[in-house]
């Protein structure tokens, strides 16, 4: 069946005020050397990343019903992300964030997320049937029925979860067949320390993949139908700004999955995209195109996946 989109998504949509300072974040103080305002949010930026990589993406989360307040929706549309199926509500304002980026590219995000999250429980099946992949983040705990609806319709659910709200987050993890998680969350969720133990602890019989992202240490993967556990190192790049790198990774992974790639190949594509994204300032300014990713994957610097030992 022909589908209108590759990836659907609902979740965080933010307006970011970014401060660049001349010292690492661990220093007691630093001078502001640059200020910028950018659009962000885990899922929103991931959908923009998928679009720039040549995919067709649509945001189906809440947006404001006041056109003047719909700053984030207009920006998504400008980037080519479809917003025509997004439900509207007066309380659906963007998250506001202040991001401090240190001299080494690391960042600290302070955010105000007291807004309406998730999406409408009244979205018809025909909306979800327009793509093979649904991308969500931790705020999808507010719309578990919609995630359950999408999973029941056969969509692959790619989950980007960074924090837990207890039972609701556990339910969300259970509904998601592709967990693409920061390793810090994996450690907190399982009580395990080693990547191979975390991968096994998060595995369930109906899971398709568990991916742990660990910044400059690369990614760790368990995939269905494969007895091996995998480690793909990161590219050797100098990070300018890591804001949005994880979102770029998720968008690239979701797009590759929609195109029929195996989880390991999705990780390879996502790793290249995220590596390029950190070489520019801002959460979206460094999002790459497909040709740049393919060139990186074909380069001599491209990392090679190795297997991890269990036990």
Notes on the protein architecture:
The protein is of the alpha/beta class. It has a single domain, classed as UDP-N-acetylmuramoyl-L-alanine:D-glutamate ligase. It has helices at 42-52, 71-78, 125-128, 144-152, 167-175, 183-190, 195-201, 245-258, 263-277, 290-297; strands spanning 7-10, 14-21, 32-40, 57-59, 63-64, 88-89, 95-101, 107-112, 133-137, 156-160, 178-182, 209-213, 219-223, 229-232, 306-308. The strands form 3 sheets. It has a 9-stranded mixed sheet, sandwiched between helices. The longest helix has 15 residues, at 263-277. The model has no long low-confidence stretch (mean pLDDT 94).
Distance between the termini: 44 Å
- The helix content is 25-40%
Average of pLDDT: 94
CATH architecture classification:
3-Layer(aba) Sandwich
Summarize this structure briefly.
The protein is built from ten helices and 15 strands.
Question: Which properties best describe this structure?
Answer:
single chain, 311 residues, alpha/beta, UDP-N-acetylmuramoyl-L-alanine:D-glutamate ligase, 10 helices, 15 strands, 23% strand
Topology:
Elements: E1 7-10, E2 14-21, E3 32-40, H1 42-52, E4 57-59, E5 63-64, H2 71-78, E6 88-89, E7 95-101, E8 107-112, H3 125-128, E9 133-137, H4 144-152, E10 156-160, H5 167-175, E11 178-182, H6 183-190, H7 195-201, E12 209-213, E13 219-223, E14 229-232, H8 245-258, H9 263-277, H10 290-297, E15 306-308
Helix pairs in contact: 1-8, 4-5, 6-7, 8-9, 9-10
């Amino acid at each position: 069946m022909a589908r209108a989109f590759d990836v659907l998504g609902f979740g965080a949509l933010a307006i970011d005020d970014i401060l660049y300072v001349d010292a690492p974040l661990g220093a007691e103080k630093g001078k502001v050397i640059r200020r910028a305002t950018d659009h962000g949010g885990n899922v929103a930026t991931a959908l923009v990343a998928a679009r720039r990589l040549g995919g067709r993406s649509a945001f189906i989360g809440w947006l404001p019903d006041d056109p003047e307040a719909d700053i984030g929706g207009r920006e998504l549309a400008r980037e080519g992300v479809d917003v025509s199926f997004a439900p509207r509500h007066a309380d659906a304002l963007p998250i506001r964030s202040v991001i401090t980026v240190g001299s080494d590219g690391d960042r600290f995000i302070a955010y105000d997320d007291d807004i309406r999250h998730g999406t409408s429980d009244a979205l018809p099946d025909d909306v979800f049937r327009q793509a093979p992949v649904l991308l969500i983040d931790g705020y999808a705990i507010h719309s578990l029925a919609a995630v359950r609806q999408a999973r029941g319709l056969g969509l692959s659910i790619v989950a980007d979860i960074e924090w837990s709200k207890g039972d609701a987050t556990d339910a969300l993890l259970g509904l998601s067949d592709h967990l693409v998680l920061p390793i810090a969350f994996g450690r907190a969720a399982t009580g395990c320390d080693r990547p191979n133990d975390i991968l096994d602890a998060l595995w369930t019989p109906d899971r398709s993949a568990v991916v742990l992202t660990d910044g400059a240490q690369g990614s760790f993967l368990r995939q269905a139908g494969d007895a091996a556990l995998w480690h793909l190192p990161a590219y050797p790049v100098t990070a300018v700004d890591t804001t949005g790198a994880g979102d770029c990774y998720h968008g690239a992974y979701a797009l590759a999955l929609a195109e029929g790639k195996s989880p390991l190949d999705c990780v390879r594509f996502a790793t290249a995209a995220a590596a390029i994204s950190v070489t520019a300032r801002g959460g979206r300014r460094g999002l790459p195109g497909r040709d740049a990713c393919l060139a990186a994957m074909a380069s001599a610097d491209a990392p090679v996946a190795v297997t991890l030992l269990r036990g």
